[in-house]
Amino acid sequence: MYVVLILIVVAIVLGPSLWVKRVLAKxxxxxPTMPGTGGELADHLIKRFELGDVxxxxxxxxxxxxxxxxxxxxxxxxxxxxxxxxxxxxxHEVGHAIQFHRNEPIARLRKRLTPAAITVERVAIFIxxxxxxxxxxxxxxxxxxxxxxxxxxxMLSSVFIQL
Length: 163
Fold this sequence. Notes:
With 163 residues, this protein is mainly alpha-helical. It has six helices and three strands, in the order ααβββαααα. The protein has helices spanning 2-26, 38-48, 76-79, 84-101, 105-138, 143-162; strands spanning 55-59, 64-66, 71-75. Strands 1-3-2 form a three-stranded mixed beta sheet. The two termini are 28 Å apart. The relative contact order is 0.12.
């Protein structure tokens, strides 16, 4: 029973991320006839939507829009790539820049909740990593389930904050 519940929770937490990675990999092959790269599209969209203070750069830290630095950051395959994935990711991240530029409510909410989501996720990881040690110290094996449940709930709350 517990195993099934844990598998369901893991699927809920990790499933969407794994699905997105699979789809991006599936459509990540360069198309020679594509007229530009993801980075060039992002730059074009920034100019088209007159986001004057926003720039584009390549990063190793994952594709994202950083509102503090006004920077659309794309990984090498998406910045230099001429694939459907590169185009989709570039357009998606510029979409975030547009939301922030227009001061849309969803962007304000995201800016307010993102630090909380990151903190909750870090706490959840710490709780999950500490569970075996706490169980050993308490000498109560069942405490692992309780601690793991708290960690999973914290992870799920981070997912819901980001949703």
